[in-house]
Amino acid sequence: MTSAEEASSADKAAPPAAAAADKAVSPTPQPHTQTQTQRLRALLTHTLRRTDTTLLRASALLATPAGIDSTLCTLSYTLTLVHARLRARLTTRLYKLALGMAAKASDALLPGETLVATLAQPASMRRLGRAAEALEKFAGLVSDFRVFVRLWGMLDMYVWARGTWVQPPRDGVVKAVTWAQVLVNTAYQVLENGAYLASKGVLNSEGWSGERGAKRQASWWVWSSRFWAAHVALEFVRLGWEWRREVVVEREREREGEGEKEGEKEGEKKGMQSGQGEGNDADAVQAARLRREVETAAWWRQLVSNLAYAPLTVHWSVEEGVVSEAWVGFLGMVAGGAGLRERWRQTAAVVAA
Question: Given a cut of 50, is residue 330 above it in pLDDT?
C-alpha cells in the first residue's frame, strides 16, 4: 500500500474514533437532589407550622385581660389614624374637583354671577368615603368596649391599694408616688364610669338629664382625663427617680468592680486558687446582668408609652382639644404598640411550654 492510500485509510478511520472519544467525555446528566414537588411540600409544611405558631400565640395573647387591652388599644388608635388619613385624602380630592369645576365655569359666567351646582361623586370617592366611615365606626366600637370593661376597674384599684399596703415599696419616694397614683386613678375611674353610664342613659336622674346633665357629663369626662394626666405625670416622677437611683447604683458597682479586680491581682500573686467559688461568682454576675437588662428594657418601654400618652391626656383634659385626630391615632398607636410588643414577646414562652 502506498503512502497516499495509508493516509486515505487513516482519514476514513478518524471520524468513528473521534465520535467515540466525544461520547466518552460528554457529561452525563445528574439527578436533581430535590424535586419541585418536594420543595413545594417543604414550603407548605413550613408555612403551616408558622401559621399554627402564630395562631397559638394570638390565642395566648387574647387569653389575658392585659393582652386584650393592649391589642384593642393598638387596634383602636390605628383605625383612628387610618380614618384620619382617608378623610384628609377625600377632602383633598373634593377640593381639587371643586377647583376644577370653578375654573371651567368662570369663563362662562358674567361678572357678579354665581354658579351653584350639585355633582355626583366619582365611584372612587364614594368607596373612599364608605371606607372612612366604616373605620370610624369600628374604632368607636372598639373604644366603647374598652371603656365598658373598665367599669369594674375599681376592683383593680382595691387590689392595687391592698398590695401596696401589705407589701409597700422599700424606697420612700416610690412608695409615695404609688399611693398618689392609687388615689388619682381611683378618682379617674369613678369619673369615667359615671360619665360613661350617663352617656348610655343608665344614670338618668335629674342631675344627669337635660342641658345640666350634658354639662355635667362633659365635665366628668374632662376631669377623668385630668386625673389620668396626673397619673402620667407621677409615672415620669417614678421613672426619673428610678433612673437616678440606677445611676448611683451603677457608680457603686463600678467602684466595687475596681476593688474586686485589685483583690484578684493580689490573690494571683499569692497563688490563691478558688475554682468552684469563681464559677459561682460568674453565674451570679451573669444572672444580675440579665436582670438589669430586663429592668432596663421595661424602663424604656414605660418611658415610651408615657411619652406617647402625655399629649393625649392633655388633649382630653381640655374641651377644645390640642392635637388633630391623626396625631391622636399616631400617639395612641405608639403607646399601645409598646405594650402589645411586650405582651406578644411573652406569648413565645407560653407556646414553647
Answer: yes
